[in-house]
Amino acid sequence: MKQRTPVSAIMTKEVITLNNTDSLETAERLFKSKKIRHIPVVSGESIIGMLSYTDILRISFADSVTADGDYVDTSVYNLFTIEQVMAKNLISISSHTTIKETAEILAEKEFHAIPVVDNSKLVGIVTTTDLITYLLDQY
Predict the structure, then answer these.
(1) Stretch 18-44: mean pLDDT, rounded?
(2) CA–CA gap between residue 122 and residue 16 (Å, rounded)
(3) How does pLDDT run across 81-97, given as a tens digit for each residue?
(4) Per-residue pLDDT for 9 more than 80?
(5) Domains of the chain (ranges plus CATH)?
(6) What count of other Cβ atoms lies within 10 Å of the Cβ of residue 122?
(7) Domain of life, per the record (predicted)?
(8) Cα–Cα distance measured from residue 125 to residue 10, given in angstroms and rounded to the nearest whole number
(9) pTM (2 decimals)?
(10) Cα–Cα distance measured from residue 136 to residue 126, given in angstroms and rounded to the nearest whole number
């Protein structure tokens, strides 16, 4: 296992984002259609938060469906904005941060995704799944 491999080697580079003005219903559709669990929230080019699928589940029954497979009423989403639900105190890393340093941050904190930011611009996202996949590839 390489000791100094940068996180850019394993991060997702084509990041799906939400705008702070998007609806929570839009967020739910993205989570389900893209099969992802974390979406950075941006205002212009600046990252201002991170929304997780768990954040959505806390305020709704987002994964509930009717017997026909249709989605349930999502009117609860009208009660909240993305900014009210997202995590705001983010830790970000640069694309040069090592995988080991990234793993240490994720092991210490209580979140499962970190935005990768270079020169104030979002360039990627790395998740615990990315780290596990990297480790499995080493064996």
Answers:
(1) 95
(2) 11
(3) 999 999 998 999 999 99
(4) yes
(5) 7-137 (3.10.580.10)
(6) 17
(7) Bacteria
(8) 9
(9) 0.85
(10) 16
